[in-house]
């Protein structure tokens, strides 16, 4: 709803809804743009010694902090919308404030937005390979898009700023970590370095050096413009301004140290694009493109910060009557100064059409010879640089020759044995340790944040099943199932942790964080073995920062252990082909790992088939290892249950859930009485035993496929779409609400109209990469296709799909590398068209993110709290479940039981009646209602209810006993004993 314009002199009706993190993100995002990637070049030209250059950066930061201290004091005193405009008005009056406001409106903000957008456009076009003529449209589109985002609301604008600022800071720190930890090449052959010094006297040189430094630090005033919208400004304003500035100082100093650790002072003074040259030295040509992406993200965030803060000055000026009063209009529903935003957007677009100083020629291509080289000599030099970084030292000597029979002048190493391909170099141990540390840190932060969730110490549904079984095993009672219902591997894994670390819920999640970080390292190793070191590291970091993997590492569920075992099996298989002398041992170990993965998640067994084809004559060794891993589970089922069930007996029912004419209904069956009634269907049909029950459901699924092949085919197409869709489909428990507790998930797992991140982006890239690179990594391609087919055979949920992520990340990285470097024009266009089509398929119509937990999880949490005696908390959860689904019969039943035990029989009666209204076949509601009728003395009504309950659930022993009691003939009342006659009494 739109609000009226503010009367002159009034305060704009803006809500205080910008928190500390968002305010800090505005400060940091406004400061860090493109300066840190270019300004060190100008500083190094004046100050030739690294120590003096670093001192200048520190001094610039100290002076910025002094300004921040003064600004923080003003911000606390005048915490109103308008920032510097308000401070000038309060200090010097309306005249100077008017001059500043008009300058900000007409000159400062529009030109700043337009100039930074032009830098963004340059690097964006370089990153995605667009021609130079499209840069204007990219900049124009960036301004339009971010203006629209800020028009949607303050939360949308600040949320975008938070994501972009966090991304840019992490990206810069990743650049620094790479500079410190990864080996790097020297200067390219033939590169000429300019003189590093301009010959000014020291003090004058120091003063000149401070100019680009102050330019890089500019922007710490911007968060004051939203002063009227900061929550708790007395506390948050100083932290946002000072803390943000301190963070930028640290980032800038660390970044300069990183530059000097890779480049010499003369090289920094020579290469204007210092950041790009540093990345090129570390990662080769990929580094230049990675830096282009980082600069594009950084400047995009700075543009958003300017668009977010600029209209607040116009709004405040209009509210004071110093500008067109309509510009003080505020959309009350969205909390945005919409008219001021439109005005600023129009002026910024006008400014973007004005000529701007062109970026140096070395900005997009680093310097001559650093781009994509197509000649043989450049290719030789590039290969030489790579060999220098392969772990053998930059000075290792080797011979190369061109193979005239190989297209495009591919290179072979002299002396390579015929018939055996050279093994690609694996990432260095240092790079893998850095990857492991990053992945582990992300997961530890997530796990610690999730402790605020009530589900952290109260696992529900499947997690509760695993937890209960693990506690029974750790206590020495063994697994509670006579024949395993679910694959038992994860329960035994949890039991081992409980027996070592105690019964707490933090230890298993820390263990899973370590496994998740190990999976990132395995992904990098497998990717490097298949496609090269750069692809491997890119895929490894993709896995390290993949939101759904981080989420499952914090849940007591199977994906973390499954993925680690699957990747270990694949890595051992790749090693087996490279080490003939240990081939048998490695293939057997690979089979053992995939067998253990199958004991955790049964569909993993299909990977054994793919590995067996790859193993060829050693397939029997692999299959023997797989059988040895599964054999103890099979023997235990046979010994305790007397039936031959290889792993678990839920395979048949899962097959039926995913292949029946009522797919949506069966997938959504509630995890209580409905599920119990569903599972007991074979028993009602007279079938006894776990194996026959599984076969019963499997036969029903096959019968459906045979009787309705067209409907079955439509269902498979629907499941394929669900498998490719970006939305994360829950199984009993919603996923997206966990974002409210975890800042990691807020950054790495989200949905906006047109993109469900991250799978909506990974899927099209991964499939495109699989299409172009699958032949060069047949094992990985076979595993992806086999496991995807296994998931499709059952039903689609995020938990079952997520093991595909690491291999899709590898194919995504290779596909991007191929598209940027090797693809011909026609192939590039075709692959891009295919990826866009898949992107649209996976992202359009995916719906919003659920903000709250679903009714099933709320109900299950309530039942757990009730068992622990926390009755009031349980009641709250039952009401929450009913608020989301008023026909949740089981929640009504539990509320009725609680009310009846408290003596509120009337409320209990109504609750049981509500349960029956929602589900007339709810035997438990009938039994409990019969108890109330019996206590009220209405035996006939109670008997009728008991009989209905027994007809629905013949296993209900309570109903059976009560029916027998109420139908029995009543016993005659006991007669009073005869009394002897009394002798007559005498008269007194």
UniProtKB/TrEMBL annotation:
Membrane topology (UniProt): Multi-pass membrane protein
Region described as Disordered: spans on this chain: 357-391, 956-988
UniProt KW keywords: Membrane, TPR repeat, Transmembrane, Transmembrane helix
TPR repeats: 855-888, 889-922, 923-956
Keyword Membrane set for record: yes
InterPro entries the record matches: AA/rel_permease1, AminoAcid_Transporter, TPR-like_helical_dom_sf, TPR_rpt
Subcellular localization(s) per the UniProt record: Membrane
Residue spans of biased composition, Pro residues class: 969-988
PROSITE patterns, A to Z: TPR (PS50005)
Segments traversing the membrane: 20-40, 52-76, 96-124, 136-154, 169-187, 199-217, 237-260, 432-449, 510-528, 535-552, 585-613, 619-638, 748-773, 779-797, 826-844
GO molecular function, one term: L-amino acid transmembrane transporter activity
Keyword Transmembrane: yes
Lineage top rank: taxon: Bacteria
GO CC, alphabetical: membrane
Protein name: Amino acid permease
Organism of derivation: Eiseniibacteriota bacterium
